[in-house]
Design a protein that fits this description.
The complex is a heterodimer of chains A (114) and B (115). With 114 residues, chain A is mostly beta strands. Chain A has a single domain (3-113), classed as Sandwich (Immunoglobulin-like). Chain A is 0% helix and 55% strand. In chain A, the strands form three sheets. In chain A, strands 2, 5, 6, 10, 11 and 12 form a six-stranded mixed beta sheet that branches. A four-stranded antiparallel beta sheet of chain A has the order 3-9-8-7, with no helix packed on it. Chain A starts with a strand and ends with a strand. Chain B is mostly beta strands and 115 residues long. In chain B, strand 4 (31-37) and strand 5 (44-50) form a beta hairpin. Chain B is globular, with a radius of gyration of 13 Å. Classes of the chains: A mainly beta (114), B mainly beta (115). Chains A and B meet through strand 5, strand 6, strand 10 and strand 11 of A and strand 5 and strand 10 of B.
């Protein structure tokens, strides 16, 4: 079955330190991978995507993600965390099922401490 | 460009009552999605429209949920009758194409509480 896993419910990091939010997927075929962020009482916002090409993709707010096909992972990273990065992060995979269908992970709450 | 508009922002109803949510996507976006996000979980696709046609409604509980997108623009999602387990945030999203490569733009959602 197609699935997306975010193994950590919460990630805690000090401001200024690098952060990583993990995502692994299990799909057949070549996936399209996305990261979204959700701030309190707000809808999800698109951060970045991997479609093809360079395994390291850059997105909004200084975030980047690395696609690793052999490990079926798409971890979200940022070199230096900000308190304002504290939010809920969702990994998603889009599948071509005759009309693209996007499956979301359960989410990881990032808490950045000043 | 204006974002995806949803209303109402909040709704509290008693079980067995009916409720409707409205969504107006970004102008020119052909594809519209309704997602259900239960607290502590990721969004789950309920229904996907391409213009005014349904592409995927395999996870829509059709005995109580219905959705339409007349004229291929705005959309309405209805629940009748509501159950306690329908308490969730209902998110509307749109994309210019089918979303496979472009990603979605989400609205702020409607938070439904069924008591």
């Amino acid at each position: 079955a197609q699935s997306v896993a975010q193994p950590e419910d919460q990630v805690n990091v000090a401001e200024g330190n690098p952060l990583t939010v993990k995502c692994t997927y299990s799909v057949s075929g070549n996936p399209y991978l996305f990261w979204y962020v959700q701030y309190p009482n707000r809808g999800l916002q698109f951060l970045l995507k991997y479609i093809t090409g360079d395994n390291l993709v850059k997105g909004s707010y200084g975030f980047e993600a690395e696609f690793n096909k052999s490990q079926t992972s798409f971890h979200l990273k940022k070199p230096s965390a900000l308190v304002s990065d504290s939010a809920l992060y969702f990994c998603a995979v889009s599948l071509d099922t005759g009309g693209f269908k996007t499956i979301f992970g359960a989410g990881t709450r990032l808490f950045v401490k000043a | 460009e204006a974002g995806v508009a949803q209303s109402p922002r909040y709704k509290i109803i008693e079980k067995r009552q009916s409720v409707a949510f409205w969504c107006n996507p970004i102008s020119g976006h052909a594809t519209l999605y309704w997602y259900q996000q239960i607290l502590g979980q990721g969004p789950k696709l309920l229904i996907q429209f391409q213009n005014n046609g349904v592409v995927d409604d395999s996870q829509l509980p059709k005995d109580r949920f219905s959705a339409e997108r007349l004229k291929g623009v705005d959309s309405t999602l209805k629940i009748q009758p509501a159950k306690l387990e329908d308490s969730a945030v209902y998110l509307c999203a749109s994309s210019r194409r089918t979303g496979g490569t472009s990603g979605y733009t989400f609205g702020s959602g409607t938070r439904l509480t069924v008591v």
